[in-house]
């Protein structure tokens, strides 16, 4: 039987960073569900489909194929066979993904793939509704969060290191807006599963968060 670890939480909480590190240390497969939604969003953007046009988005889902492959232990996301792992990390793609992930057909297409992966392998999966909807029977569920200020500062520093022009206040507002959108969407809103353990990383380093979750995992084994 496969062992599943579900990590949910708001944008910028460090879910992907933590999940990747945990996967390496526990020899699990890391599944970045957010990357899948970003791939779908990239397709919509490339085809000039407006985020409000649910009918066009639902129709486009029929021609989009998202799959994942692993290269040197790292997840690569393929959009209709094209590796888009780097392109989907752009800020505008993330915003489009947050807006379009609310639609039933988008979620249906990707959740089926995610559940199949988890049924066959020991996986660590992160996203917004993994513990509540995608993997409700996961043996370990974590709700990883941090304050808006902490998440904005992390994103600000990240962009500065890349040489990108950015404004901390604008980033704070973007994060707060995404939180509201994710928590109030009609389908699979972001919330802490009843049996999930809350981990607030506001005052924790990466290694401390990883060790905290590893201890939770050990208690479940």
UniProtKB/TrEMBL annotation:
Pfam families: Cytidylate_kin
Localisation per UniProt entry: Cytoplasm
Coiled-coil boundaries: 96-123
EC numbers for this chain: 2.7.4.25
Keywords, sorted A to Z: ATP-binding, Coiled coil, Cytoplasm, Kinase, Nucleotide-binding, Transferase
Keyword Cytoplasm assigned: yes
Residues involved in ATP binding: 9-17
GO molecular-function terms, A-Z: kinase activity
Catalysed reactions listed for this entry: dCMP + ATP = dCDP + ADP; CMP + ATP = CDP + ADP
Domain Cytidylate kinase: 5-217
InterPro entries: Cytidylate_kin, Cytidylate_kinase_dom, P-loop_NTPase
Assigned protein family: Belongs to the cytidylate kinase family. Type 1 subfamily.
NCBIfam families assigned to the protein according to its UniProt record, in alphabetical order: cmk
Protein name: Cytidylate kinase
Species annotation: Roseburia amylophila
Gene (name only): cmk
């Amino acid at each position: 039987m496969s062992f599943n670890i579900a990590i949910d939480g708001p944008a910028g909480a460090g879910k992907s960073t933590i999940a990747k590190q945990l996967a390496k240390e526990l020899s699990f497969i890391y599944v970045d569900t957010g990357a899948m939604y970003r791939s779908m969003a990239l397709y919509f953007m490339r085809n000039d489909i407006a985020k409000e046009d649910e009918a066009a988005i639902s129709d486009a889902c029929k021609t989009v194929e998202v799959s994942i492959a692993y290269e040197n232990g790292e997840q690569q996301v393929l959009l209709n066979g094209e590796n888009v792992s780097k392109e989907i990390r752009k800020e505008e793609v993330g915003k489009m993904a947050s807006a379009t992930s609310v639609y039933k057909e988008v979620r249906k297409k990707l959740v089926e793939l995610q559940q199949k992966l988890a049924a066959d392998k020991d996986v660590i999966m992160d996203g917004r509704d993994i513990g509540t909807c995608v993997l409700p029977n996961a043996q370990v569920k974590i709700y990883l969060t941090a304050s808006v200020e902490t998440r904005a500062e992390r994103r600000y520093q990240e962009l500065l290191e890349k040489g990108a022009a950015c404004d901390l206040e604008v980033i704070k507002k973007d994060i707060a807006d995404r939180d509201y959108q994710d928590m109030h969407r009609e389908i699979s809103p972001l919330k802490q599963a009843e049996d999930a353990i809350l981990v607030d990383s506001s005052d924790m380093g990466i290694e401390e968060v990883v060790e905290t979750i590893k201890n939770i995992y050990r208690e479940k084994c």
